[in-house]
Amino acid sequence: EMCIRDRVSTQSTWGNYIPQGWTKFYEFSYGDFRAGVGVLETLLSEGQGDSIGWETLHGLMENAIYGGRIDNDYDLRVLKAYLEQFFNLEVFNGTQKLSGVVTIPNSKSVKDYLGLINKLSDSDTPTLFGLPINIDRAVQRYNTLQIVGSLKQLMAVSAEDIKFDKERWSQLLGPLTKIWKQLYKQLSDGGIPQIKQHHLAADDPVESFIYAEAYETFKMVEKIDESMEGLNKVIFGTGLLTNDVMQQAIDLLSGKVPIRWSNMWEGSENPSTWLKGFSKRANGLKKWLNKIKEGSLLKSEINLSEIFHPEIFLNAIRQVTARSLNSPIDNMKLAASFDKGKISGPFTLKVEGLLLQGCGFDMARLVEPSDNTVSYTHLRAHETPEHLVCRLLLEKKK
Questions:
Q1: 358 φψ region: left (φ > 0), alpha (ψ -120 to 50), beta (else)
Q2: d(CA 282, CA 152)
Q3: Please, what's the b/e burial string for 234-251 (b: 16 or more CB within 10 A of its CB; e: otherwise)?
Q4: Whose CA is closest to 80, among 90, 91, 66?
Q5: 367, β-bridge pairs
Q6: CA distances from 68 to 4, 30, 32, 304 (A)
Q7: What is the pLDDT of residue 156?
Q8: What is the per-residue DSSP string for 322-367?
Q9: How distant, in Å, are the alpha carbons of 143, 162, 250 from that of 159?
């Protein structure tokens, strides 16, 4: 009986919802399934047919049978959540539906279980795995990007194209140099901010982070401009084809982001998209610098997509809050709410530009999506009442 229940629970658990379910594909096999069945049979036998050691079952599944193939913490948490959702007393005695969808028969008849198995869909049902009903849209988006990436690889330039040819390079790389010229013109409008040493040594963790982020960013802006200008000169016959220029050209002609760029920020794998994303954040940092000078940064709406390392920014807020509360930084936690009246603290941030996936928003709370809901929901501050905009704060743990 327990073995058949395990088959019901696991027949589609390791589905195709990547990266929304698992972050990557794992080679779970029929051998893993048989090992799981063996564990169930043993535990059932030890429980004399009336009970089962759920903690033991979860531990063996998580740490030995399935967890042994998983190589990152996020997917281990997913596995643990699935084990707790699928293998518990309420589900197996039929008093609670499996994922709110399937009722396990409270019966010892093989016929009842075979009937249930035969009724299951041949394709994965998202809700069975705790995923939103519109997850197929996100999967299609992901698969489309994968196909586009494969097509780009097929269209990658040949060795003959990589060899220097003035007309060929002008045709292939000219559009990219023009994109950068436009982006650089926007960035340099009003001048590139100059970050001094005393800025980097600021006592305030938030200011210190922003200045350090801006310093590295604008230094990178000049490096990119220098390298793109060198490439442009080679194309027009006014510059030398150095090893650095050649290597950058090889990367760009191959549709890759040069290593010197990606070391600064791991953005898109497409060079033109990477440049646009980099420029967007560089312009965003210019605005953040102005707000710091005005003393209005933490008083205004924050868009975390305007900086390169939002996680470090939040940690800086954590440090500031810990100092203000005279409490160890390890005692700080992040809290979020759509209602500003529910939270308070010395430093409260209003966050805009959020993207919600796997849910909808009804101007008051998160709601379950329908099967035709778009894969991403935009939560824009200017379209949402102020008291519903997500706010973040750090406070002492209770």
A1: left
A2: 28
A3: bbeeeeeeeeebeebbeb
A4: 66
A5: 360
A6: 23, 15, 10, 36
A7: 58
A8: HHHHT--GGGEEEEEES-GGG---S-EEEE-SEEEES-EE-SSSEE
A9: 29, 5, 9
Closest CA to 388 of 344, 350, 334: 350
- What amino acid is encoded at 242 in this protein? T
pLDDT at 152 over 70: no
Cα separation, 250 vs 48, in Å, equals: 68
Q: What is the pLDDT of residue 11?
A: 39
The token pair that represents 2 in the structure block: 């327990």
**Can you read off the two tokens belonging to residue 311?**
């996680």
What is the three-class DSSP state of 102? strand
Alpha carbon distance 75, 177 (integer Å): 41
Of 32, 95, 43, nearest in space to 65 by CA: 32
- 312-316 mean pLDDT: 93
Residues 6+ apart with CB under 8 A from 93: 104, 106
Give per-residue pLDDT as tens, 11-70. 344 456 766 677 888 888 888 888 888 888 888 787 654 567 888 889 998 888 888 888
240-256 confidence digits (pLDDT tens): 888 888 889 888 888 88
- As given in the structure block, the two tokens for residue 93 are 């005695």
Distance between CA atoms of residues 396 and 206, nearest Å = 19
- φ, ψ for residue 337, nearest 5 deg: -155, 150
The predicted model scores a pTM of: 0.69
